[in-house]
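To illustrate the input format used throughout this study, we show a single complete record. The first block contains the structure-token representation of the backbone; no residue identities are included at this stage. The design step must infer an amino acid for every position from geometry alone.
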């Protein structure tokens, strides 16, 4: 009886969820895909281009595949209320086609420089070829070659507007995780662009704060992969969160994504208050610790060393962020308090190797709030 109930429960969950997702699909010529873009009936979100890193070789390989008649994976789109299609998966493919055809526009609505192809294993004569250049006919595709591409077909799978509003973001994560986007935060940024562009640009501007960047002292690679944006998101979500919620945080990546979307949906989110908390926190940190803020402290040598530690960020930045209003009136030397975090608390044992965020954060966030209480 128990087995039957479990099976029925699972089947009901499947049936209920399937009813929330309405989809359609068919083949479209590349010429039709280009026309959609020219008529602004499809949104590939130019902001996404900073997160997708196809090389010139990868782009050329796509054009080669089209010319050789190799099937191209379908494009997934979501239909908005205004009828425009949001690209959920396939941005690299479409961007490459638009770039090669000389149609791709950047964030400033300026047409990007057209793609020039490289030679490939099967089509070495592609080297230096362009879509069409009146001043370089020798290296331009012929009309027959352009028509061959425009008449080739790529399937579209459409998530219709009647679907559950969160289905688009779930689908985006599933299809893009592990692809050319390197990190979960890059996927979150794309979701945020689709859901609340105002919030995305607000966060991007905050992440460039000079005090914040100076205290983090991250590598160029980490910044390129948007780790500073993830740390900003952790600050916004965890700074004032109720401690009972911390005990049920689960997977930190999923938690951050879900909470980010929840914030993005709020009409009453207090951008001004969060900006003040963020800016004051890192002004305080820069003034007293600078680039030592989140580095390991060695008591025997009385010095900070090493690189950025996220566990230190969770104690120090969130602790100061929670108490920032009272700290300017305090006589406490924050540098001394930070040293105490490393020497007089359980922080080292709670943050050592093998301690994941699920177990670490419920202990470190309350510790920081208590340590930096004025």
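Output of the design step:
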């Amino acid at each position: 009886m128990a087995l039957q109930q479990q099976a029925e429960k699972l089947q009901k969950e499947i049936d209920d969820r399937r009813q929330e997702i309405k989809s359609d699909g068919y083949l479209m010529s590349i010429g039709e895909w280009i026309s959609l873009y020219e008529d602004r009936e499809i949104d590939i979100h130019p902001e996404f281009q900073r997160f997708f890193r196809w090389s010139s070789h990868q782009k050329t390989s796509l054009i080669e595949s089209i010319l050789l008649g190799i099937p191209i994976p379908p494009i997934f789109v979501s239909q908005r209320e205004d009828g425009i299609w949001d690209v959920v998966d396939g941005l690299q493919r479409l961007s490459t086609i638009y770039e090669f055809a000389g149609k791709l526009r950047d964030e400033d609505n300026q047409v990007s420089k057209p793609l020039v192809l490289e030679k490939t294993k099967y089509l070495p004569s592609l080297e230096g070829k362009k879509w069409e250049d009146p001043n370089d006919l020798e290296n331009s595709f012929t009309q027959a070659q352009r028509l061959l591409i425009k008449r080739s077909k790529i399937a579209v799978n459409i998530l219709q507007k009647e679907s559950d509003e969160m289905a688009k973001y779930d689908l985006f994560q599933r299809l893009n995780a592990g692809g050319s986007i390197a990190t979960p935060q890059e996927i979150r940024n794309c979701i945020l662009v689709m859901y609340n562009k105002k919030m995305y640009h607000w966060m991007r501007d905050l992440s460039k704060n000079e005090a914040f960047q100076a205290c983090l002292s991250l590598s160029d690679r980490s910044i390129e992969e948007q780790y500073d944006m993830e740390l900003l998101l952790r600050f916004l979500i965890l700074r004032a969160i109720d401690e009972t919620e911390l005990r049920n945080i689960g997977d930190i990546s999923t938690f951050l994504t879900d909470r980010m979307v929840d914030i993005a949906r709020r009409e009453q989110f207090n951008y001004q208050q969060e900006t003040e908390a963020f800016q004051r926190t890192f002004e305080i940190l820069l003034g007293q610790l600078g680039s030592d803020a989140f580095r390991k402290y060695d008591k025997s040598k009385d010095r900070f060393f090493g690189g950025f530690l996220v566990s230190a960020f969770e104690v120090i930045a969130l602790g100061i962020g929670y108490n920032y209003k009272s700290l300017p009136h305090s006589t406490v030397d924050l540098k001394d308090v930070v040293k105490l975090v490393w020497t007089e608390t359980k922080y080292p044992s709670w943050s050592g190797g093998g301690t994941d965020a699920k177990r670490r954060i419920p202990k470190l966030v309350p510790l920081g709030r208590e340590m930096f209480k004025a």
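Structural context for interpreting the output: The mean pLDDT is 87. Residues 184-371 form one domain.
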